[in-house]
Design brief:
The structure holds 2 protein chains of 2 kinds. Chain A has helices at 11-23, 28-40, 44-59, 70-89, 98-109, 112-121, 124-143, 148-153, 158-196, 210-215, 222-230, 236-239, 243-254, 256-267, and strands at residues 5-6, 9-10. By secondary structure, chain A is mainly alpha-helical. Among the domains of chain A are: 5-59, no CATH class; 81-122, no CATH class; 154-195; 233-268, no CATH class. In chain A, a hairpin with a 2-residue loop joins strand 1 and strand 2. By secondary structure, chain B is mostly helical. Chain B has 2 domains: 1-95, RNA polymerase sigma factor, region 2, helix turn helix motif (Rna Polymerase Sigma Factor, Chain: A), CATH 1.10.1740; 98-199, Orthogonal Bundle (Arc Repressor Mutant, subunit A). Chain B has helices at residues 4-15, 19-41, 44-61, 72-101, 105-110, 113-117, 126-141, 146-157, 162-169, 173-195. The longest helix of chain B has 30 residues, at 72-101. The chains are: A mainly alpha, B mainly alpha. Chains A and B meet through helix 1, helix 3, helix 4, helix 10 and helix 11 of A and helix 2, helix 3, helix 4, helix 5 and helix 7 of B. The complex binds zinc ion. Zinc ion is lined by residues 4, 11, 14, 37, 41, 43-44 of chain A.
C-alpha cells in the first residue's frame, strides 16, 4: 500500500498511530497529518471508521456477574490443594524440643515399633490432623443427631458397637446422598432456567472460526502467531493447567467436601 | 489500578498460609477472571470451570509471584490467558470434528449473524434491544480469531494498557496495537453485515 502517500504520511505510519488516535492521545501536527491521510486514503479512511465502530460495539458489552457459587467452589478446591500439599510436602520440624527428648527417652525404654508410632504421633501436623479429624467427627455426629450425652448410654458390647457403627454409617451415607440430591436438583433448575431465558447465548460452538478466515484480509502476518493457539508443547505453563482436574482426582479419595464440589460442577 | 504494597502484603500473607488473605484475593479477582474467560470462551459454564482452574493454578504458583517484576493483575491475567490458550487447543479438536460433520460454511455465510442468534422477534423494548445488542456483540466476538479476540478483550473490556497486554501476550507493543485495531475492525465488519438492514 505504499502508493498512498498523502500529506507526507504513509499507510504504515497511519497504522502505527491508529490506536493512539482512537485513544484520543494524538495531537498537534501528527493529528492533523493523521486526519488528512484518513480523508484522502481510500484504504485507511474506512479502516479508521471500522476500528472506531468496533471499539464502540465492544463498549456495549457490560460486565457479567459470576455465579454466586463461584467463590465457594474456588475456596473449596484451593483450600483442598493446600491441605493436600502440606500432607505430602511439609518438612518435618527440625528443632530438638521437649518432645524430642521424651521420644529419645521412649525409644530407649520401649521397643522400636512403639517408638516409630510415637514419632509420627508427636509431629505437630499429625496432632493437627487428629484435631481436625476429631472436630469433623463431632460436627458430623451432631449433624446426624448424635449427642455426646447419648454416648454414655451406648453399650460397649462388641455386637452393640457393630450395630451402632452400621447404623451411623447408613445415616452418613443417607446424609451425603441427600446433599448430592439437592445439588443435582439445583443444577437441573439452573439448567432449566438457562434454557428458558438465555441471558447471553453461547456462541455457535460448532463453527466459530470459519467466517473470520474468509473475511480476514489481513491474515498473512497472523499465521506465525497462530502457533500460540495451534501448536502444543511450547508453553510450559500451559501443560500444567491439566493439574487442575488431576488434583481434583486426588482429592476424591480423601476429602468428601471436595467430592461434593466437583460433583456439583460436573452436573452444571 | 492496584496498590502494589497492599497486594504484595496480601500475597505474602497468603503464601504464609493465611486463609483470610487467600479469600480476599479470590474475592477481589474472581469477577475479573470470570469475565475474561466468559468473553473469550463464550459460555458461562466454561467460564466457571476455567475460572476455578485459574485459581487452583494461582494458588499453587503464588510463591513464585515476584512483585518487582510486575503488577499482580498482570500476573493473574497471564495465568488466565495461558489457561485460555490451553482450553482453546483442547476444544479445537472437537470443533474441527463438528465442522466436518456439518459442512454448512456456505450456508452459514449467507445467513446474517442476527438470524443465527434470534430466531423469534422480541418486543421493541429499549432494555431488550440493549440486551440483544450485547448478545450479538458477544457472539461476534466469538467469531474473531483467538489472537484478535484476546487482544480486544484485554484492551476494551479489561482496560489494560498496551504495555500490560504486551507482557501478558509476550509480544511487542506494536503487535498488540495492530491486533487490537484488526480485532476492532473485524468485529465491526461482522456486525455491520448483521445490522446493515436494521440501521
Ligand atoms: Zn492509507
Amino acid at each position: 500500500m505504499p502508493e498512498h502517500t498523502n500529506n507526507g504520511m504513509q499507510c504504515q505510519e497511519f497504522d502505527g498511530l491508529l490506536a493512539d488516535a482512537i485513544d484520543g492521545i494524538l495531537s498537534g501536527s501528527r493529528l492533523d497529518r493523521f486526519q488528512a491521510h484518513a480523508r484522502a486514503c481510500s484504504a485507511c479512511g474506512p479502516l479508521l471508521a471500522e476500528v472506531e465502530a468496533g471499539r464502540n460495539w465492544l463498549r456495549e458489552l457490560s460486565e457479567v456477574n459470576p455465579p454466586a457459587s463461584l467463590v465457594t467452589s474456588i475456596l473449596a478446591s484451593t483450600t483442598g490443594v493446600e491441605t493436600q500439599r502440606l500432607r505430602v510436602h511439609a518438612p518435618t520440624p527440625q528443632r530438638a524440643s521437649l518432645w524430642e527428648r521424651v521420644q529419645a527417652w521412649l525409644s530407649g525404654a520401649t521397643q522400636p515399633v512403639f517408638a516409630q508410632t510415637w514419632a509420627t504421633v508427636r509431629q505437630p501436623r499429625f496432632a493437627m490432623s487428629f484435631g481436625m479429624a476429631f472436630f469433623s467427627i463431632s460436627v458430623a455426629l451432631s449433624v446426624l443427631g448424635v449427642k455426646p450425652a447419648d454416648l454414655s448410654h451406648v453399650s460397649l458390647r462388641p455386637a452393640a458397637i457393630r450395630h451402632t457403627y452400621y447404623n451411623t454409617q447408613a445415616r452418613v451415607v443417607r446424609y451425603y446422598e441427600n446433599i448430592r440430591f439437592v445439588y443435582e436438583v439445583e443444577s437441573r433448575v439452573r439448567e432449566l432456567k438457562r434454557n428458558v431465558q438465555p441471558a447471553e447465548p453461547a456462541p455457535n460452538e460448532a463453527t466459530p472460526d470459519k467466517k473470520e478466515h474468509k473475511d480476514n484480509t489481513t491474515q498473512q502476518p497472523e499465521q506465525k502467531q497462530e502457533r500460540n493457539y495451534s501448536q502444543p508443547d511450547n508453553h510450559l505453563v500451559l501443560a500444567s493447567a491439566r493439574l487442575g482436574p488431576s488434583v481434583n482426582d486426588a482429592f476424591r479419595k480423601n476429602d468428601p467436601s471436595v467430592v461434593l464440589v466437583s460433583t456439583y460442577r460436573r452436573f452444571v | 489500578m492496584e496498590d502494589v504494597h497492599v497486594t504484595a502484603m496480601l500475597v505474602r500473607r497468603c503464601v504464609a498460609g493465611d486463609a483470610a488473605a487467600w479469600e480476599e484475593i479470590v474475592q477481589t479477582y474472581n469477577r475479573r477472571i470470570y469475565n475474561i474467560c466468559y468473553r473469550f470462551a463464550g459460555s458461562g459454564n466454561d467460564a466457571e470451570d476455567l475460572t476455578q482452574e485459574v485459581f487452583i493454578k494461582m494458588y499453587r504458583t503464588l510463591p513464585s509471584y515476584d512483585a518487582s517484576k510486575g503488577a499482580f493483575v498482570t500476573w493473574v491475567t497471564t495465568i488466565t490467558r495461558n489457561l485460555l490458550v490451553d482450553h482453546f487447543r483442547k476444544t479445537k479438536q472437537d470443533r474441527v470434528t463438528d465442522s466436518l460433520d456439518a459442512p454448512v460454511s456456505a450456508q452459514e455465510d449467507a445467513q446474517p449473524l442476527s438470524e443465527q442468534i434470534h430466531d423469534q422477534s422480541a418486543p421493541p423494548d429499549a432494555s431488550v434491544r440493549s440486551r440483544e445488542l450485547g448478545e450479538t456483540v458477544h457472539a461476534a466476538l466469538g467469531k474473531l480469531s483467538p489472537e484478535l479476540r484476546e487482544a480486544v478483550i484485554l484492551r476494551d473490556l479489561q482496560d489494560l494498557d498496551y504495555r500490560e497486554i504486551a507482557t501478558v501476550l509476550k509480544v511487542p507493543e506494536g503487535t498488540v496495537k495492530s491486533r487490537i485495531n484488526r480485532g476492532r475492525a473485524e468485529l465491526a465488519r461482522l456486525l455491520q453485515r448483521t445490522y446493515r438492514q436494521v440501521m
